[in-house]
Amino acid sequence: MSYLTITPNINQNIYNMKSPLFFILFLVFIIHTASAADDVVYDVRGNKVLNNVPYHIGPVVWAKGGGIKLTDKKNNNKICPFNVVQDPAEVNIGGKFSFTQVAKENYLKTSRILGIDSGSAKSGCDVSTFWKIDDAEAKAPKNLITTGGLFDTAASCFQIVQYPKPTSPKIHSYMLQHCPYFCGAGPHTCFNVSVVVDNGVRYLASSGTPFEFVFKKIK
Ligand SMILES: *[C@@H]1O[C@H](CO)[C@@H](O)[C@H](O)[C@H]1NC(C)=O
Questions:
Q1: Could you identify the atom of ligand 1 that is nearest to the CA of residue 207?
Q2: Quick check: 130 and 101 in contact, CB under 8 A?
Q3: Where are the domains of the chain?
Q4: pLDDT tens sequence across 20-76
Q5: Centre of ligand 1 from the C-alpha of residue 210, in Å
Q6: From the CB of 192, is ligand 1 less than 6 Å away?
Q7: Could you say which DSSP state residue 166 is in?
Q8: Where is the secretion signal located (predicted)?
Q9: Which pTM value belongs to this model?
Q10: At the top level of CATH, which class does the domain 41-217 belong to?
């Protein structure tokens, strides 16, 4: 008699254990599907950003300075390799940069390892045109972004991350992180790319408040 009452209880228990599990798996599936659709990177007009194609990048509100560009001067002296800076004039759209994912895909996605290419070399000191940070944990100038990096190496390893509190909910804005460890070596962390002001010049570097930026298609 007791045997008969235990049997349905066991079945009941199995059923109770299974259904939350299936529900969680179902939720994971839904969340995964939603995030897979969401991780594509969009330009300021809402179009998908192409992998390995030049774009302008700059602040959401262009009045807070212009686009990102290279400079071959610091305090009026020639520098080599070049620094990556924000143009002081809001009318200037800046340089052209290709974000090149290590995994070959048509469109850029957030949280993918990538290199940032400044295009063809303009001088002998700019032979390698990928952005790099020599020492993300150091102070300026060692933590400033320069050219001279090699694709898919620790110093040139970046990822795009959705900006946590966007200036405008209607505009897709992002921040960059430098993640040397993802490409092979270095501290087990990612560094937010920020703007460091030195002598009035706005340099991109690996410390401080993350720099919020947008992609602009080249006309
Ligand atoms: C990077 O930026 C995010 C968003 O502002 C912030 O939550 C996080 O603490 C920053 N990380 C570091 C290491 O500063």
A1: 14
A2: no
A3: 41-217
A4: 555 555 555 544 544 555 699 999 999 999 999 999 999 998 766 799 999 999 988
A5: 7
A6: yes
A7: -
A8: 1-36
A9: 0.82
A10: mainly beta
pLDDT one-digit tens code per residue, 184-196: 888 899 999 999 9
pLDDT of residue 20: 55
Task: Note whether 65 and 85 are within 8 A (CB).
Answer: no
Centre of ligand 1 to C-alpha 176, Å, is: 11
DSSP state of 169: T
Atom of ligand 1 nearest to the CA of 177: 1
| Helix extents (H) in the chain | 2-38
Question: Cα separation of 195 and 56, whole Å?
Answer: 17
One-letter amino acid identity for 193? V
Instruction: From 192, 194, 196, give the residue whose CB has the most ligand 1 atoms within 8 Å, as the site to mutate.
Output: 192
Among 91, 115, 99, which residue's Cα sits nearest to residue 179? 115
